[in-house]
Amino acid sequence: MPAPGETPAAEASVLANLDARSREIFRRIVDSYLASGEPVGSRHLSRILPISLSPASVRNVMQDLEELGLVYAPHTSAGRLPTQQGLRFYVDALLEFGGLAREERARIDNQVRAAAEEAGFEGALTEATALLSDLTHGAGVVVTSKDNVRLKHVEFVRLDPERALAVLVGEDGSVENRVVATPAGMPASTLAEAANYLNAQVRGRTLAEAREDVARSREAARGELDALAARLVDAGLASWTGAEEASRQLIVRGQANLIADLHADADLERIRRLFADLETQTDVIDLLHRAEAGEGVKIFIGAENKLFSLSGSSMIAAPLRGGDRRVAGVLGVIGPTRLNYGRIVPMVEYAAQVLGDLKRSR
After folding, report:
1. CB-based burial, 55-65: b 16+ in 10 Å, e otherwise
2. Do residues 317 and 353 touch, judged by C-beta distance below 8 A?
3. Crossing angle of helices 207-216/227-246, nearest 10°?
4. What is the largest CA-CA distance in the chain?
5. Predicted confidence (pLDDT) per residue in 168-213, tens digit
6. Which of 5, 208, 224, 307 has a Cα-to-Cα distance from 279 of 20 to 30 A?
7. pTM for the complete prediction?
8. SS3 label, residue 220
9. Residue 152 and residue 9: Cα distance in Å, rounded?
10. Composition of the chain by helix, strand, coil, percent to 5
């Protein structure tokens, strides 16, 4: 999705076909849906519009909106609801994103930073997801890589003539092991040489920092190490890069909020499907990864993403940017398609900003 405030070409074309009256009626239909989840009829609209229109005139406009694919009637003689296309158009072209209330800003700041003081960055992530869940009545989600641990020690242990175990020990006592291929007949001294070089480079750094430092000094390393040891250093770094990709963690808080405002059996089935999606985790992580690209908040609505094609849910997500503006994770909120987008977008954006600041200060 474009950043809030940008209007894509397709939306601009639809917008050009709407006069001020049609735009106002469409906005009221969507606002009513976001507030109640219920269809709104022409008689009710005629009473609340700021301009004087008869129910018959409103019905004519609603018919035009239906022909544009922006609204639909869920059953005969019903009012109208926005289609998924209509919601996307509303979010991209018509929605005004307000600022965050001072109280909400202070609450996010205070609680997330207090959690970081008490339980580190991991604690801040958990608090941010729980807080967003509480503030938005959706499910708070965050995905990050577990490469925040500072490294203490690196070692290579021979397994057989053509394989060695690359071992990373973190300052927190965590251990990562990966098997790496070694040239046949590599002497034990080469394993020790590669480990000594890496220990001098990586101690006290995170895995991401260590990889960058070693990559920058790779030419110098080739001068300091023999060819076999240099190859082993590269193999070790490559294996740990794979370990980082495999260690993406997903935190979800507030799933219970998603069942607090159900309107029908169809809603309950939608939530069951969403819960099943959240349990599998993989698709949620993949979707959150899509929010890493570019700047700002991304909004995913319903079947625009395969994850929500059955559950009819939406996600609002923003990247967390640590040192050098590198993406350190993604924070978001999942809920029904009638999320309060205008209120939640700045909330997610600010919480991601606070977590990014904490990440950079570590």
Report:
1. eebbbebbebb
2. no
3. 150
4. 90
5. 787 766 677 778 888 777 888 888 888 888 888 878 877 767 777 7
6. 208
7. 0.69
8. helix
9. 52
10. 55, 20, 25
